[in-house]
Design brief:
Layout: H1 2-30, E1 32-37, E2 40-41, E3 45-47, E4 53-54, H2 56-72, E5 78-83, H3 89-94, E6 100-106, E7 115-117, E8 122-131, E9 146-150, H4 154-166, E10 171-175, H5 178-186, E11 192-196, H6 197-204, E12 213-215, E13 221-230, H7 234-250, H8 252-261, H9 278-285
Helix pairs in contact: 2-7
């Protein structure tokens, strides 16, 4: 009878773990959900004046944490932040250091070979930022010049490909993060910063000479952003997607979006003035997690 009881308990525990999947089981066992956060990815995930991770993606991940706590029936849940970069977030997710990456990651087929993307939570455009007095109006005007993008970003791969295809003769640098990339433009080490418009605009808005930077009129790409989770963990992915879907259908997304893209944000009370695009309004109405930019048009 004793052995039978032990066997039943072992079977029940195993079945519970299987039902929860690896991430939720890990959180249930440890009482900790670990978020991958960024230092300077304004306004998605960045450190404020108190070195606390805040931002649009962080607000969404806070809701995910609440949903995880409810799903597991936990009395308390510790949410831990681990700073990641564009280059380290996927390796740290795959090796279990973080449970979800809460920033601005472009959903691509190549990245889907390693991780899964939640429902798209923002649509950005890859663009060229230059100094307003540079006279640069297009990618062609950068022929033979030095440009910068951020290490590990889709924009770095894109500008390398465009450089080869158009034989532009660019000298391409990579910054450790968006702040370092922008600094290269600001100090003259690079003539242009190629990055998603919302990310480069966010970094530039914090600069003392913010008005000195503009975008050229070219749109190099459309970038669907998603929170990243581990592959083959449908249970946790479902919790994340159900949370986002509820935020979208309830209209709460409008308040969260306006808070970070149309209102003064910490630490310097800058305003990005980026109203919700028609493409993202369509995404909110009928959410998808596609890597194909054409699916959002």
């Amino acid at each position: 009878m004793y052995l039978a009881t032990l066997s039943l308990l072992a079977f029940s525990s195993s079945a519970l773990a299987q039902d929860l999947g690896p991430t939720l089981e890990k959180v249930r066992a440890t009482g900790v959900l670990t978020l991958g956060v960024r230092e300077a990815t304004v306004p998605f995930s960045y450190l404020d004046g108190n070195q606390r991770a805040v931002g649009y993606s962080m607000d969404l991940c806070t809701r995910v944490g609440e949903a995880v706590k409810e799903r597991l029936g936990l009395g308390a849940l510790t949410v831990k932040d681990v700073v990641v970069s564009t280059a380290t977030r996927i390796p740290l997710l795959v090796n279990g250091t973080i449970d979800i990456s809460c920033d601005a990651a472009t959903n691509t087929l190549e990245r889907q070979k390693q991780v899964s993307f939640a429902l798209t939570h923002f649509l950005a455009a890859g663009r060229v930022m230059v100094k307003a007095d540079s006279g640069i109006k297009s990618l062609e005007d950068l022929r033979g010049k030095t440009v910068v993008s951020t290490a590990g970003s889709t924009n770095l791969s894109l500008i390398m490909a465009l450089n080869r295809e158009r034989d532009l003769g660019l000298n391409i640098l990579s910054g450790r993060d968006h702040g370092e990339s922008f600094l290269m433009l600001q100090t003259g080490r690079a003539a242009a910063f190629i990055m998603d418009d919302v990310l480069s605009a966010g970094v530039a808005a914090t600069a003392h000479d913010a008005k000195n930077y503009v975008f050229t009129d070219e749109f190099l790409s459309l970038e669907p952003y998603g929170l990243i989770v581990r592959r083959n963990d449908s249970q946790f992915e479902d919790v994340v997607n159900d949370t986002l879907r509820n935020i979208y259908t309830s209209g709460e997304i409008n308040k969260i979006y306006e808070k970070w893209f149309s209102s003064p944000i910490p630490p310097n009370n800058i305003t990005l003035n980026l109203p919700m695009s028609d493409a993202f309004k369509k995404q909110v109405a009928s959410p998808i997690a596609s890597a194909n930019p054409a699916d959002y048009k």
